[in-house]
Amino acid sequence: SRTPDASAASERLLTAFAYGAIDTLGDPDGVVRLDEELHVRGFASQPGGLTSERVRAGDPLAVPEAPEAPPARGPKRAAPKRREARMVLDRRSYDDVLQQFAEQTRPDPLAEVVDAPRTEPVDRAGPRFFVPETPVLTLQGIARSLRHGYDGRYDPDERVACRLSGDTVGGYAGLVKGIDMLEKRIEHGGMPPEAQPLLEEAVVTDPFFVEQLTATAVEKSGASAKAAKARLEAERRLNLRAQKVETDAPRLLAASLKEGVDPSPLAVTIWRQAWVPMFLEWELVLELHASLRRWSLGELDYVPAADAAPADTVTLRGRSLLTPTGAKTFASQVTQFLDTEHKLDLAGQGGLIDDATEELLRTLATAIDGADVAGATLEGVRQMLMGYDPRARVFDPGGNPIPPPPIGPPRLLRAGRARFSKLRVVDSFGRWLDLPQAKLDAVLPAESLRAPQGAAPLPPGRIHLAPRLMQPVRLTLTLLDAADDAEPATVDQETGGRNPVAGWLLPDHVDGALELFDQAGDPLGQLRHDALSGGVGWEGAPGRPGAVGAAPAETVPNPHLARLATGLVLRDVNDRAAPQPPAESPLSALLRVVDTTLLTVDPFGHGGTEHFSLLVGRPIAVVRAELRLEVESDLDAHELSPEARAARAAEYERLAQQLFEVRLGALTRYDDGLLGYFVDDDYSVFRPVHPVVLDQARPSGPYAGFLSGSANGSGNGLEPVPIEQPYVRPDPTVDARPGQTVRLTLLMDPGGRVHVTAGVVPRKEITLMRDWTTHALGRIAPSFRAGPVLVDPARVSIPKAIGLAPDQLWTRRDSPTTWRDDPIVAATGEAELPDRSPVAQEGYLRARPPEDAPPSGGA
Fold first, then answer.
1. Which pLDDT tens digit goes with each residue over 538-584?
2. How many CB atoms lie within 10 A of CB 757?
3. Rounded to whole angstroms, what are the CA distances from 35 to 15, 129, 834?
4. What angle do helix axes 586-598 and 559-577 make, rounded to 10 degrees?
């Protein structure tokens, strides 16, 4: 017998095949993508409106030109001369001439038209609303009537058995022959010779001809009437049993006295009332929880606690139509896949499977296509929980159907488990069949309806019901304008739009520092550890005007980026003033969280490798966004009495107090670029995307991790060092109430996506548009702190940084408020002493920004 794990693996493979995910199942995140597909299949979507953006249309480099002579679809024709036009005037009317001229000067619609640079509005679909999909129950072995086919009653391959001449049944050996029952033979030249044996077979196999066969058998063979009748009656019953394909029929047929080969059971059909299952009447008992207090958000959905007991029960009843389309649909998918494989083989491109697997799939398709299964959709479950009667039909004065008014208060949140207390199959003739309780307790739930990993096992016959909202709901993660949280981020290639990127971070693990850049990619400064005290301090960008010791709020234009830097410095100050300071600074913890998380992110994503900054470092975008869980209300959809409206409004108010966990980011997705985030402008606490990041964090920083002398090919020196800095909160989820807005500051890789998981809706993802990041990524370049070094004050000749642009600068302070930039002349191997005495300086190696003019030698 197969184990439950093997059955679950087989179901997973069949599901991947049915959903078209079998080709990507072997990818690094293929299993996660399949889990997401299973999760999203449990929802039905509804439109969420439209949004508008302005994008560039046509060729932005094209210059509109005056049209040339009208192109023709056939041979080119010259424009008519004036003299020819006068000749036409003599022969035709003035209107005819105008029509001819218009046809000759009309532009060809098929000619290539070069668009001038312009922008135009483009409508895009807004975030969709979701409701839980209707459950489906599949019944096996309900013995549908033969008239529907595919039941395998007579032959497994659904084909009629064919015989050759001479194979017909001529009689029963030792008892009677068919010719003995006929008065004379067929004597007609127009009848084929096979007609006579068929007539004889029809006589001896007639199930209602036992008395006549017995009398003839007694007369011809001399057997006793009792024995002859008993034997012939047994033969008749054996024929009827063979039509039902009973398990003992093949063994009994071997002892039959028939002389010849039996015809197909279709040749002798005994009338019976057809069993045509048409409807399924069901009674479903829901054992529900009052809230989500005993539930926690797993990887994709909620998981109940081991001791989570249902609060109350709700019984629902309904009738659903039975249909066999489920098995046929899967069989057609297998057949279509095999047809594609055959075409690839004929084209010489090679298929995905070998010949043996192809034959197995063909056998599987045949077996599934003929399986005795039927499915029923449990329609009305969501409507009944919302207080509606799904059988009610209400029409407006014009005869159009309208939603019926509710008849009771709603249950907006459904979470718990369910069981069938009654199942009845009803056929088209009014007969029914009640399934016994043993069958109800043996219900096999699908993977999405089984108890999730980590939860307590369910009793027999129970079905796991993950938390779902009965009203349409959507979870939105809206990117905001980094300069104005009241406006959403937009793409407008005419006016520039609104950019959600507040600035950029560039980790420097060599110095244990974090460089900050503005929205355009220009340097602002860096957070670094003081060489003496080890405290976290702020230092302005080299070459940027400003006094020594200026605070981030004075040098960083974006307030959110400034608060991020200020919050990290203040957190370090508070930690160092504590009686027991943490083992590492908040800046070190932030850098280690980012470094560990980046190991799970595609280094280039959809951003590609066109930007040099992505090759010399991993720029991190600081992005503004807001999170909102929206639930549609039906209070205004019907005219309700004051009491009914108050009761319904109370349920919506109770739902508004319910906390839903939301997780940002997904370590299991290779394309997820979220590295952490801040909630509601609280920059004193940083949240990672998963608690495992804190446990598996690798050491990093100056002379640590990969930069340590003990880190070699064997991995020594790279063992995990858990992060225990209070600046990083272990719980990465956000609590959201329906209708509540949560403001977020995201740290994300510009080439990745941000996945949002809430359980009650499908996982969604957002990404940054290239219009918001391309310009900055082309400008961001790190600066390298160096010194003290001996330089010629008139001609700086030191080794240049490898990887930066060749035009590099030596930047250092020449006063407490000003900077000086000198071009660097690459040092050579020649041993030459400068004419002037060298001086010791501390400064920065940095690349010249693309828009900067050549320096004139001054500050």
1. 888 787 776 667 788 888 899 999 999 999 999 999 999 989 989 89
2. 23
3. 10, 21, 68
4. 120
Backbone φ and ψ of 151, nearest 5°? -110, -5
Cβ neighbours for 669, distance < 8 A, ≥ 6 positions apart: 29, 32, 753, 755
Q: Indicate the pTM of the whole model.
A: 0.76
Helix (H, G, I), strand (E, B) or coil at 619: coil
Residues 6+ apart with CB under 8 A from 696: 596, 720
- Burial class of residue 185 in the structure, from the number of CB atoms within 10 Å of its CB (0-12 exposed, 13-18 middle, 19+ buried): exposed
In whole angstroms, how far apart are CA 27 and each of 32, 354, 756? 10, 21, 21
Number of helices (H) and strands (E) in the chain: give both, helices first: 19, 35
**Which two structure tokens, joined as six digits, stand for 157?**
């391959």
Residue linked to tokens 């929205």: 519
Q: Which two tokens stand for residue 691?
A: 């608690």
Q: How far apart are the C-alpha atoms of 452 and 301, rounded to whole Å?
A: 9
Q: Which pairs from 568-576 meet CB under 8 Å and 24+ separation?
A: 568/527, 568/536, 568/683, 568/727, 569/527, 569/536, 569/537, 569/538, 570/684, 571/684, 571/727, 572/535, 572/536, 573/535, 575/725, 575/726, 575/727, 576/535
Q: CA 532 → CA 536, 571, 572, 636, distances in Å?
A: 11, 19, 15, 67
What is the gyration radius of the CA atoms in the chain, in angstroms?
41
Provide the token pair at 488.
């959403």
pLDDT, one tens digit per residue, over 150-165 is 555 556 566 677 888 8
For the chain, how are helix, strand and coil distributed in percent, rounded to 5?
25, 25, 50
- Indicate the Cα dihedral angle 608, 610, 613, 615, nearest 10°: 70
Tell me if the bond preceding 699 is cis, omega within 30° of 0.
Answer: no
Q: How far is CA 266 from the centre of its chain?
A: 49
Q: 43: Cβ–Cβ under 8 A, 6 or more apart, which residues? A: 130, 131, 132, 133, 761, 762
* Cα-based distances in Å from 651 to 28, 285, 387: 44, 22, 12
Q: Which of 180, 858, 261 is nearest to 543 (CA)?
A: 858
Over range 452-463, report the average pLDDT: 85
Strands (E), 530-653: 536-540, 620-631
Task: Give the best-scoring range by mean pLDDT among 108-112, 485-489, 529-533.
Answer: 485-489
Pairing outcome for strands 118-125 and 394-395: unpaired
End-to-end C-alpha distance for the chain, whole angstroms: 83
Distance CA 675, CA 667 (A): 9
Residue 329 to residues 19, 147, 369, 532, 602: CA-CA distances in angstroms? 12, 20, 8, 72, 37
Residues in the chain: 859
User: Is residue 624 within 8 Å of residue 745, measured between CB atoms?
Assistant: yes
Q: Could you tell me which residues come within 8 angstroms of residue 171 by beta carbon, excluding any fewer than 6 positions away?
A: 177, 178, 179, 180, 200, 204, 258, 259
Run of H or E residues at 233: helix 225-243
Closest of 487, 516, 486 to residue 502, by C-alpha: 516
CA dist., res. 350 & res. 344, Å (int): 6
Cα torsion through 479, 482, 487, 490, rounded to 10: -60
What is the number of other CB atoms lying within 10 angstroms of the CB of residue 298?
Answer: 17
Taking the C-alpha atoms of residue 454 and residue 445, their distance in angstroms, rounded to an integer, is 17
pLDDT band at 849 (very low <50, low <70, confident <90, very high): low
Phi, psi of 591, deg, nearest 5 = -65, -35
**What is residue 7's predicted lDDT score, i.e. its pLDDT?**
67
Phi, psi of 111 (to 5 degrees): -70, 150
**Strand stretches in 153-251, DSSP E:** 171-172, 176-177
User: The tokens of 196 are what?
Assistant: 């006579």
Contact 509, 705 (CB under 8 A): yes
Weakest mean pLDDT among 81-90, 387-396, 763-772: 81-90
